[in-house]
Every structure is written in C-alpha cells, then in structure tokens.
Please model this.
Amino acid sequence: MNKLLLVLLAVSVVACQRSGESTTAEPAAEPATSPEEAAVVETDRLAALLDAQPDEVTARYQYRHPQETLEFFGIEPGMTILEGLPGRGWYTKVLLPYLGSEGHLIGSNYALDMWPNFSFASEEFMAEMSQWLEKWPADAEEWRGEDGASISAFWFGSMPEEMAGTADAVFFARVLHNLARFQDEGVSDYLDVALADAYRVLKPGGIFAVVQHCARDDMPDEWANGANGYLKKQFVIEQIEAAGFEFVAESGINANDNDQPTTDDIVWRLPPTFATSREDPELKAQYEAVGESNRMTLKFRKPE
Model:
C-alpha cells in the first residue's frame, strides 16, 4: 500500500512538472484586515454616524459621550442589542445604522400598567402609549437607513420566549430611576421584572450596560429613591447583582462633578429639560452652566 502511494505521488509530481505547474505550495493569504484595523474601521464608522446627527443631538455629546460610552460597553456591528426605554430614539438613531444589516435592535418599554403612575399620564396620553408596541418599530424603520439593523419590541414583563438568550448586550441609559421609584406601586415589582428580562434576554457572557443619574453617597436614601431622578451607585450595583449579574467595571466617562443637587432638587432642573426654570432666564443660565446630570457608567456581565 505504501509503495502504491509513492508511485501515485511520483506520477503526480511528473505530471505537474510537464504541465509547467509549480509543486511549491502557495503561501496562505493574509487576512484582508487585522483585528486592529477592523477596530479602527468600526471606530471611524461610529464617529461618522455620530457626526451626521442633527445639531441639537450633537450638542449633547459633551455630556453624554456616546462614542466613548458605546466603545466602553463593547457595542459592535452585527450584535443583537436590547435598548431599554428607547423613547424618541436618541441612541436608537445611531445604533440602528451602526449595528448594520446583520445586527438586531430590540426596544423595550416600561410595562404599560406602570405609565399611569406618572402625573402627566392623561387619558389621551395612555391611549397613545397603548399603541407603542406597533408604533415604535414602525417609526424606527425610518431610522435604519439602507442597511440598518432589524427591529423588534416588547413591554417589560412581557418578553416573547423566543427572544431569551439572543442578545449580546442590554443597554439601559437613564432607565432605572423610574423602575426603582415605582417598584412597589403597581401590579408587579417593576425594577425586579425589568432586570429579570435583561438577564433572560442575554446570551451567557452577554453585557449589561448601565448609564444612570448618580446621587452622592451622602444624600439621604429616601431622596435618592428614583423619584428625583437619582439613584446611589451602591444601590444600583446591589440590585443588578441580586438579579444574577457580575459587576465588571465602571467608567467616569459621564461623570459631572458640577452637578451637586440638594434635597430640594430634581434631575430635570438640568438641561435639556429645565423643568424648574423655563420662566426664569437667570436660573436657567445657571443650570445650563452646570450641564447635564452626574452619571454612573457601569458594566455588568451575565455569567457564562
């Protein structure tokens, strides 16, 4: 058998030589781009998308640092991302084209039965909000561009079973305070339910990304319960760890030491809302000088 193999090999070599073909193996082709080069391309792509946003959006970058924030959390094209409370799409309008045609964006809103807890939730408002599950994906289609991510949505507490274990990352930007505020004031424990959904939707090893208005440690716990917009970092970490996540890292990207609220203050006194100074130009100017809120930026992981 070995002799036969040697004969066949010899015949093959001779045939190649007669046909002018080289018997020397071609070197393996180099990858089109190295991981480092790919990272630069993704950074440039994200920067270009951010630069293309309207002036009223880019004006917020000095406080919200979207590029640094998304890079800190490791958000990349092709991922499946759950965005909590996407609202009018401040981040959504960047995420959809950035994730690209191979990506998927899931929007998740507060449970419908939580919304009546807000003082502004009129009958008309609730009638409109009840259409969110159909309306938000339709609106978001217009933000995808030609090759943006696909879109789906659900209410917290009503996640479709087929979404479980599909997400690479969950992104909660300024979402947790109202969940904590109304935790015990509805038909379900809203914060616990939302964190359980975040855990269940993630793949093992998936990232839970949190940006949240941050209260100083010396502020009273009863003030920092979410009703004023602020939560304490230790409270947030404890709640998320209790939901099964591992704390990975924090960043000062979105910190603002100029934000020093008293117990008489709410986070919405600051830009862009100016809830308490709309008729007082001098006070509004003071809050404009403070900038947006001091925010914690925390990264967690679902265990493998």
Notes: The chain has a mean pLDDT of 91. The first helix runs from residue 2 to 18.
